């Protein structure tokens, strides 16, 4: 079953609205600060929704409903349990600390704290992370587009990548944030429509939906969904490990990932940035519960009607496609187009953020001179503010536009490469083995810089490299073991470690090993006044000491 003419009209209307928003959002000959940071005038509500939209991709939009078929409500609730700890650290420490500096790229902090090599390493890790992340988003989206429309996977990747690259290069962060708001409304509407349809077609309370999920899991041999906790690292997931994994992920994203931090830098000050973070957290909780409700609603529909899964889908290996296939086969005409628009919105809100952040970071890294650090006394007035050094020259707007195009091409190549991943992994199992393999070590590098003042550059970079190795070993050694066994090797090299352990373990390894390596580092200590959480109130005695 394919999309109808009405579905394509709905899809065309979405692209028309997107085009209008993109055109109106572009200012004539934008300045650097306007192109990269919207003039640092973004309001908290807009900022928060944009952060949430950039973090919520089509991966989450499909994986959350699909995970219900694997673990009921326990995995989603586990993720939500990790939010209070993460929110306290980000809101109370990370945002007010970083907002003291007048940065454009968060990796400028690494140069001030450690030195130029640390900044280069941090920026390079971010570039690789985003290319893999955006590529993965396009791969997941292309799978659904191919199923709904019959369009070849590569054509779907090229089409979405080209459109997103075009409007991102055209208007910079201002257009990205403006289109994010439209995309939030579209993807939320698609989920709400599905829930309302099931509630109307097969009436039942939310408790009936949860009970149906429990009955299904029991029939499939998993009567207790997922346990609360287990010390067994091969246990796929538990409530506690899901909570810890999500808390560490959010901490790393809101501290070391330019996609999120760039939005906070676009706020008027620390107070607005913190309000925006609270909005994004509340929106994330709401959309997580909404998508969990979608998964429960679809499962309840099949449970009550006793229908087989449409499209002959396998609930184990193709659970992420159950939601879009259900919409296409059962919801009224036009719903399929709205669902596809929602999936496109979820994907494009992440991809445009990634492309814009890549262009910003690379533009700054191509400058011949390092950025100076300006300190904010807390009243909005930086101690030292040299606009020519804090943002790139005007000519870099044109460079950033071309870099956005290049990043779009790189994302397409990454998407093609990621099509070779094992289909049996599923979305949640594949994420920590691709781009999130970098998230933990990169976040650990920033955490070390902010909270461990005795650690110097060599130790910090050594620990970060070790954390990256840990991520890759935990993620891919089981696959290597299986490959060797298929070739005649008798003994497994490594057990199948749960994906929920990879990110926290690599982050913790980086943070714990850095101070140990620092004991062996013979280099002289740097002046860290104003550059760590413990020395944040100690400002340099003269302007010359702000340059590193």
Q: Main traits of this protein?
A:
548 residues; 70% helix; globular; 21 helices; mainly alpha
Folded structure, characterized:
The chain is an all-alpha fold and 548 residues long. The chain has one domain: Up-down Bundle (Sodium/glucose cotransporter), CATH 1.20.1730. Helix content is 70%, strand content 0%. The chain has 21 helices and no strands. The N and C termini lie far apart (61 Å).
How would you name the CATH homologous superfamily?
Sodium/glucose cotransporter
**What's the total helix number?**
21
Radius of gyration: 23 Å
CATH fold-type name? Sodium/glucose cotransporter
Proportion of beta-strand residues: under 5%
Major sheet characteristics: none
Order of helices and strands: HHHHHHHHHHHHHHHHHHHHH
Structural class based on helices, strands and sheet pairing: mainly alpha
How many structural domains can be distinguished in the coordinates? Answer: 1
Any idea of the CATH class?
Mainly Alpha
Task: Give the N-terminus to C-terminus distance in angstroms.
Answer: 61 Å
| Percent in helix | 55-70%
Mean pLDDT: 81
- Globally, the shape reads globular
Number of strands: 0
CATH architecture: Up-down Bundle
Poorly predicted sequence stretches spanning 5 or more consecutive residues: 377-394, 541-548
């Amino acid at each position: 079953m394919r999309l109808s003419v009405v579905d394509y009209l709905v899809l065309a209307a979405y692209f028309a609205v997107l085009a209008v928003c993109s055109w109106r959002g572009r200012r004539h000959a934008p300045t650097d600060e306007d192109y990269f940071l919207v003039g640092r005038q973004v309001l908290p509500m807009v900022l928060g929704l944009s952060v949430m939209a950039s973090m919520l991709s089509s991966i989450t939009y499909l994986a959350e409903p699909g995970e219900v078929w694997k673990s009921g409500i326990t995995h989603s609730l586990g993720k939500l349990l990790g939010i209070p700890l993460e929110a306290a650290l980000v809101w109370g420490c990370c945002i007010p600390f970083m907002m003291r500096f007048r940065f454009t790229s968060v990796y400028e902090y690494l140069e001030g704290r450690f030195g130029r090599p640390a900044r280069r390493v941090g920026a390079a890790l971010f570039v690789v992370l985003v290319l893999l992340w955006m590529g993965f988003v396009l791969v997941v989206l292309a799978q659904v587009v191919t199923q709904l429309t019959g369009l070849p996977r590569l054509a779907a990747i090229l089409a979405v990548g080209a459109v997103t690259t075009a409007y991102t290069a055209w208007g910079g962060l201002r257009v990205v944030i403006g289109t994010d708001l439209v995309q939030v409304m579209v993807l939320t509407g698609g989920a709400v429509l599905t829930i309302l349809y099931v509630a109307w077609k097969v009436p039942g309370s939310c408790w009936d939906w949860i009970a149906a999920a429990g009955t299904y899991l029991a029939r499939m041999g998993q009567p207790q969904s997922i346990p609360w906790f287990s010390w067994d690292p091969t246990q796929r997931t538990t409530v506690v490990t899901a909570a810890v994994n999500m808390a560490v992920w959010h901490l790393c994203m809101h501290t070391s990932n330019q996609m999120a931090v760039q939005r906070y830098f676009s706020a008027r000050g620390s107070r607005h940035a913190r309000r925006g973070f609270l909005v994004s957290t509340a929106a994330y909780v709401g959309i997580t519960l909404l998508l969990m409700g979608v998964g429960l609603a679809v499962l309840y529909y099949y449970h009550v009607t006793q229908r087989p899964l449409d499209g002959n889908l396998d609930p184990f290996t193709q659970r992420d496609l159950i939601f879009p296939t259900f919409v296409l086969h059962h919801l009224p005409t036009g719903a399929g187009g709205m669902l596809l628009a929602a999936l496109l919105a979820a994907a494009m809100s992440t991809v445009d953020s990634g492309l814009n952040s890549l262009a910003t970071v690379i533009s700054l890294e191509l400058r011949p001179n390092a950025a100076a650090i300006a300190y904010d006394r807390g009243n909005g007035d930086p101690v030292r503010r040299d606009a020519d050094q804090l943002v790139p020259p005007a000519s870099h707007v044109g460079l950033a536009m071309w870099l956005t195009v290049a990043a779009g091409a790189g994302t397409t190549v990454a998407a093609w490469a990621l099509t070779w991943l094992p289909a049996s992994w599923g979305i949640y199992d594949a994420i920590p083995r691709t781009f999130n393999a970098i998230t933990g070590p990169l976040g650990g590098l920033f955490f070390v810089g902010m909270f461990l003042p005795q650690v110097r550059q060599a130790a910090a970079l050594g620990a970060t490299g070790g954390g990256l190795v840990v991520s890759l070993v935990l993620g891919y050694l089981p696959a290597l073991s299986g490959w060797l066994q298929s070739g005649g090797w008798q003994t497994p090299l490594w057990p199948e470690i749960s994906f929920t352990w990879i990110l926290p373990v690599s982050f913790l390894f980086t943070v714990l090993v850095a101070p140990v390596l620092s004991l062996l580092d013979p280099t002289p200590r740097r002046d860290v006044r104003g550059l760590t959480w413990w020395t944040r109130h100690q400002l340099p005695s003269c302007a010359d000491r702000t340059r590193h």
